[in-house]
Design a protein that fits this description.
The chain has 169 residues and is of the alpha/beta class. Helix content is 34%, strand content 18%. The protein has six helices and six strands; from the N terminus they run E-H-H-E-H-E-H-E-H-E-E-H. The longest helix is centred in the middle third of the chain and has 13 residues.
């Protein structure tokens, strides 16, 4: 699966809710180990970590994400709405990938970390274009069933015992 210049796009809220905030058996991802895992397993040279909005009290988390080797990207919100809006980053991730395609940036495959079915049409397009690696589901229970039609070669589970052992914190 390794290829040069693969990119990962992480839906941070989805990753957090599918691991640390899950109802049964919550667990914490060690972000450094996760970044190494993405590089070694999937050849990811650049990993973009998307979050809903900036919260002053979360600076430690932001520093941890960046020092682990992720490019941190926040969703733009009107300051008056901060804390009231859902931090939905789906369109931001899709836009960022489409912008790279439009600008003819050179990269291998796209890897997506999310269980959200909202990406399904986007994933279908990337598969059709031959540039999709896999969607990595944080939580099997909340992985959208829409992806099952793709076939198991296009998805994996971060919570599987072998993967969890490598990236758990």
């Amino acid at each position: 699966m390794k290829q040069d210049k693969n990119l990962a796009f992480i839906d941070g809220q989805n990753l957090y809710m599918g691991t640390a905030k899950r109802e049964r058996d919550p667990w914490r991802i060690d972000l450094r180990r996760f970044r190494v895992y993405l590089e070694q397993k999937y050849g990811v040279v650049k990993a973009f970590y998307f979050l809903g909005y900036v919260q002053e009290e979360r600076q430690d988390l932001y520093e941890e994400i960046q020092s682990a080797g992720f490019v941190l990207i926040f969703r733009e919100h009107n300051a008056a709405m901060a804390g009231k809006k859902k931090g939905n980053v789906d369109s931001d991730i899709i836009f960022n990938v489409m912008k790279k395609l439009y600008k003819h940036e050179v990269f291998g495959k796209i890897f997506l970390v999310s269980g959200d079915g909202d990406y399904k049409m986007f994933v279908d397009f990337l598969v059709e274009e031959g540039i999709f690696g896999k969607v990595l589901f944080p939580n099997r229970q909340y992985a959208s069933s829409l992806y099952k039609k793709l076939g198991s070669e296009y998805f994996d589970y971060l919570e599987s015992p072998a993967v969890r052992k490598k990236i758990g914190g």
